[in-house]
Amino acid sequence: MAKILVVDDEATIRDALLQLFEYEGHEVALASGGEEALGLLEETDPQVVFLDVKMEGMDGLEALRSLRDRDPRLEVVMISGHGTIETAVEATRRGAFDFLEKPLDTDRLLVTLRNVLEKRGLADSVEALRTKVESRHAIVGGSFQIRRLLERVERVAPTDARVLISGENGTGKELVARAVHRLSRRSEGPFVEVNCAAIPSELIESELFGHVKGSFTGAVQDRSGKFQQADGGTLFLDEVGDMSARAQAKVLRVLEEGVVTRVGDDRSASVDVRVVSATNKDLEGAIQEGQFREDLFYRLNVVPIHVPPLRERREDIPMLVQHFTQRMAEEEGLPPKSFEPDALERLVSLEWPGNVRELRNTVERLLILSAHDGITREDVDQLVAGPTASAGIGSQLLEAATYSDFKDRAESAFILQKLRENDWNVAETARSLEMPRSNLYKKIEKFGLQREE
Q1: Lowest CB count within 10 Å: 98, 328, 347, 406, which one?
Q2: Domain 314-447 adopts which CATH fold?
Q3: pLDDT 10s digits, 73-99
Q4: Angle CA 6–10–12, to nearest 5
Q5: What are 317-340's pLDDT values in tens digits?
Q6: What's the CA angle centered on 85, arms 82 and 89, to 5 degrees?
Q7: Domain boundaries for CATH 3.40.50.300 within the chain
Q8: CATH top-level class for 3-133?
């Protein structure tokens, strides 16, 4: 059922359209002029307006502009007994969906209404999807730290200033980057993400700038890079501190000149990209060690935003738990269980070295494995704060019978924690531990370490 507003100064036309649309099951409101229609807009909240062009007082084209100004999503069908090409063009320019001439044909009216509602239904679906995506990437919390972070995001987002987001793994740096994009004038453009730590150093240039066919082994066709894919939008360089020195030099050139050159090509292409970066490293320390370019750092770090670890905003944990519980019930079909107050208190007391990402995984585990409709402190102690959880590491180590057993337990707990911090990315964990990847795989197998699901 649609909500329809009919605006015409002829009572016979209003009555005829009222009878037609009500017979089809729609809710109809009537107005005899533009001023009356504007007065009814908020009260009736129509989805479609059938609007006469020639009326006393405010004419239809004036009313069309005012109606669309108040509700840009409103679909307006113009009707006229004195239709001209010029009037139809002007109505379309002002946002009218269609232009119908009197005498009105019933079939044409109903087909036009169906087309309007199909378009409106698609728009509603897109808006629902946008809302769902924004919910998935929401920054949840009411602590002072989060309020201050959101205030900075809201200030910098409408500008084109580059942003450097710092914080530990799992704190939500990507969410901040997406919020900057969503609140910017580029929000309708692409948001392109590159994890610089996950791409081998020999491929990072091709990934960022693209390549031409034959430029290296495996380059079987031309390919655009992430900078070109993000043209008109935002490029998010995650873990930018892991970028190779050569790639850093080329990124610096793009930021300075606004052009990219694909690997193996001698031609440049202009790009209009806002760069938002993130890192869990101390880039100023990396500059001192010669691992990161100082000039690139200052180009990226126009506006710094630090995302606090979860242990510094514990008051947000109950809100995050509720958020994750609701999302998992809606999107993943998990049972919508409640958390008892003592369970929340226990969760708040834990250290959360894996930050929000670890908390999310923990909530999912509790929803799946707890045997009750209400999750209790005992559930948390059994399923979270047990032998593999950071809160229980100390007591577990002290239970070791021998020094060798103690070393194994300590090594197992340490490696498990590093895997969690890196979201079980073995290559990234091996790099952070300065350990060959093959050795790390052997340790995982030796200690029987498994990712918690």
Answers
A1: 406
A2: Helicase, Ruva Protein; domain 3 (1.10.8)
A3: 899 999 987 766 677 777 877 888 888
A4: 85
A5: 999 999 999 889 887 888 889 999
A6: 115
A7: 144-308
A8: alpha beta
